[in-house]
Amino acid sequence: MERRLMECNDGNNLQQSRLAMPESKCDCHLLLAILVFISAIMSVQSSMDRGPASPDSMFCSHFWSTADADHYKLLENGEVAELVLDRVAAAGFASNTRYLFGRISIQMKLHPGDSAGTVTTFYTSSLSGKHDELDFEFLGNEIGKPYVLQTNVYAAGVGDREQRIKLWFDPTADFHNYTIHWNKKIIIFMVDETPIRVYRNNEDLGVPYPCRQPMSVFASLWNGEEWATQSGAIKLNWAKAPFAARYRGYDVQGCEVPWYKGHIAPCISRNSDALLNKATIQDLDVEQLVRLQWVTENMLVYDYCTDVYRYPDPHPECTRNSGLLDLGSEFQAHDSFSYKMDSHTSIW
């Protein structure tokens, strides 16, 4: 508790949060996680006052950050966190706890207006060489053009499994819920109540799956202008800084792995099945399948599975992970969902 009080009331000064964040998308989250982790161990000096956040509040209880108070702000008595990006620094925060499987969710509200070149994230990552990682990455855009939401999966250091979608709402107008369901069988990325991607355990096909390394939870806002917007053609406009994103409503139910002498055996054994069956979605029901298919048909703008230029040889897991399914008569019974979603897309 003494450390949490220090972090929430005084803060730690991450000098290399003033570092430019990695500008390549390759392992950028892993580099961020390692930098933050090393800085937290190396530095316990106090810095600027964060304000009146309660040590028992959402973000004081679950997260820590070594960014200064200009770039990591606790609002509403510590129930809302704001990350700020400017010429001086990027920002991020990390969870106090690691998990191996679970449901991990947070609400986010993104920076409005010109956000080109910015990358706003919510993700999990292990601190290892051949790391595991599950990503929500919001790629900023010019005024009048929507954010692109990129998801990615790393397992045993193997990544480059990106999918990108447009959203059917304005993510800058209000908070929306972003959730990762992660268990031994499947990973499901969800936006509010809509699944936008599934990634199944295909180890039987020789495809790595993140199931042996506990992961911490991270969020960040940084300069990704070299690749984030139109493949780097549109750069970040510093005249529009500062850029800010807000987070609230963090919720996690998962199998915890302590930092000190933590073992994964309880999480991979059958003893964890009851917890994971309750906390996570094991497979999609018909309505969720309809929602996923609608997103795939209408919102998907990039899929590594169909990128024959990068990958002339198809990935073996793509057929099993496809959001395009033959739903038959079951689709007709839930077809009203498509009309509802189409009406929302006309707004944004």
TrEMBL record:
Source species, domain of life: Eukaryota
Subcellular location: Secreted, Cell wall; Secreted, Extracellular space, Apoplast
Main location: secreted
InterPro entries in alphabetical order: Beta-glucanase-like, Beta-glucanase/XTH, ConA-like_dom_sf, XET_C, XTH
Keyword Ubl conjugation tagged: no
Domain GH16 residues, every copy: 46-247
EC number: 2.4.1.207
UniProt function note: Catalyzes xyloglucan endohydrolysis (XEH) and/or endotransglycosylation (XET). Cleaves and religates xyloglucan polymers, an essential constituent of the primary cell wall, and thereby participates in cell wall construction of growing tissues.
Protein name: Xyloglucan endotransglucosylase/hydrolase
Annotated source species: Sphagnum jensenii
